[in-house]
Amino acid sequence: MTARIGVVTFPGSLDDRDAARAVRLAGAEPVALWHRDTDLREVDAVILPGGFSYGDYLRCGAIARFSPVMGSVIERARAGLPVLGICNGFQVLCEAHLLPGALTRNDHLHFICRDQRLRVENADTAWTRAYTAGQEITIPLKNGEGGYVADERTLDELEGEGRVVFRYLEANPNGSRRDIAGITNAAGNVVGLMPHPEHAVEDLTGSGTDGLGFFTSAIENLVGTA
Amino acid sequence: MARVVIDVMLKPEILDPQGQAVQRALPRLGFDGVADVRQGKRFEIELEGPADEAALARVREMAETFLANTVIEDFTVRVEEPADTAGSGSSR
């Protein structure tokens, strides 16, 4: 049985095609999900892709969070469905309170676009099992509002429970607190990060293939629990 | 009809790089003596009915769940009195 991984398209999503392609290259079947649908079409996992959903109006991810599809995603995520939010998808997950904290404008105000070195801090989530804790990977980073913030108590809690999944290495690119690039919920099924693993899945077009492990992790996870 | 104004500001402990950029630009333009600038959002909402306590409770709920992200932002809600519209001009 092939795993079915849904990729949501909001108006203004940009990286839904790349995410679907990464899913296919990893060996699963990508399933297109539309923001106005409440039906998740029996997918085994969901990816919220990068882009500028609803033009980033109000706040990044604030309007997408109330779209019909997110009602279903939130309900299923709370019940354990693996959900990965990339960039704008991470912002949507924070706005939906599936993940704590918020993403704010980069402290230097510039849009940033570069290959970013990260350390995988937690290789025990639904989306990082193909990695080992401490492994260093390089995937693209491209955003204007990627500064991760949360109050000190939340940051301590994330660190204490091993829920910081990725940390920026070398220079902090956006002012994120404690160099946080990605986090997970307590159950480990919901993961959000600012960098883009879906752009690093084959040598021809990417900065390498370091991102492929996200998608193979999800498949392994699904096969393992089936 | 009543107008309700909701001001949304980043919490004091949240860095406001846009406000800082504005502040840094001011001396270049000859505006000295500004110690700090914080940038926020203002929503003007026209209610269909009066701004009674029930309506204001709904506006506060709207601000809490949607207009502001209370993880990083604070908001205030106030009813704007229509009295000062005549001849007040843009500078007060």
UniProtKB/TrEMBL annotation, chain A:
Transmembrane segments: none
Catalyzed reactions per annotation: L-glutamine + H2O = L-glutamate + NH4(+); N(2)-formyl-N(1)-(5-phospho-beta-D-ribosyl)glycinamide + L-glutamine + ATP + H2O = 2-formamido-N(1)-(5-O-phospho-beta-D-ribosyl)acetamidine + L-glutamate + ADP + phosphate + H(+)
Subcellular location, principal: cytoplasm
Sections of the chain in a coiled coil: none
EC number: 6.3.5.3, 3.5.1.2
Keyword vocabulary terms for this entry: ATP-binding, Cytoplasm, Glutamine amidotransferase, Hydrolase, Ligase, Nucleotide-binding, Purine biosynthesis
Functional description taken from the UniProt entry: Part of the phosphoribosylformylglycinamidine synthase complex involved in the purines biosynthetic pathway. Catalyzes the ATP-dependent conversion of formylglycinamide ribonucleotide (FGAR) and glutamine to yield formylglycinamidine ribonucleotide (FGAM) and glutamate. The FGAM synthase complex is composed of three subunits. PurQ produces an ammonia molecule by converting glutamine to glutamate. PurL transfers the ammonia molecule to FGAR to form FGAM in an ATP-dependent manner.
Protein name per the record: Phosphoribosylformylglycinamidine synthase subunit PurQ
The encoding gene: purQ
UniProtKB/TrEMBL annotation, chain B:
Molecular-function GO term, any one: phosphoribosylformylglycinamidine synthase activity
Domain of life assignment: Bacteria
EC number: 6.3.5.3
This protein's pathway: Purine metabolism; IMP biosynthesis via de novo pathway; 5-amino-1-(5-phospho-D-ribosyl)imidazole from N(2)-formyl-N(1)-(5-phospho-D-ribosyl)glycinamide: step 1/2
Keyword Cell inner membrane: no
Keywords, comma-separated and alphabetical: ATP-binding, Cytoplasm, Ligase, Nucleotide-binding, Purine biosynthesis
Record GO biological process: 'de novo' IMP biosynthetic process
GO cellular component, one term: cytoplasm
One Pfam family cited in the UniProt record for this chain: PurS
Catalytic activity: N(2)-formyl-N(1)-(5-phospho-beta-D-ribosyl)glycinamide + L-glutamine + ATP + H2O = 2-formamido-N(1)-(5-O-phospho-beta-D-ribosyl)acetamidine + L-glutamate + ADP + phosphate + H(+)
Name of the top EC class for this enzyme: ligase
Subcellular location: Cytoplasm
Function: Part of the phosphoribosylformylglycinamidine synthase complex involved in the purines biosynthetic pathway. Catalyzes the ATP-dependent conversion of formylglycinamide ribonucleotide (FGAR) and glutamine to yield formylglycinamidine ribonucleotide (FGAM) and glutamate. The FGAM synthase complex is composed of three subunits. PurQ produces an ammonia molecule by converting glutamine to glutamate. PurL transfers the ammonia molecule to FGAR to form FGAM in an ATP-dependent manner.
Protein family (similarity comment): Belongs to the PurS family.
Subunit structure comment from the entry: Part of the FGAM synthase complex composed of 1 PurL, 1 PurQ and 2 PurS subunits.
NCBIfam families in alphabetical order: phosphoribosylformylglycinamidine synthase subunit PurS (TIGR00302), PRK05974.1 (NF004630)
Protein name: Phosphoribosylformylglycinamidine synthase subunit PurS
Native species: Streptomyces alkaliphilus
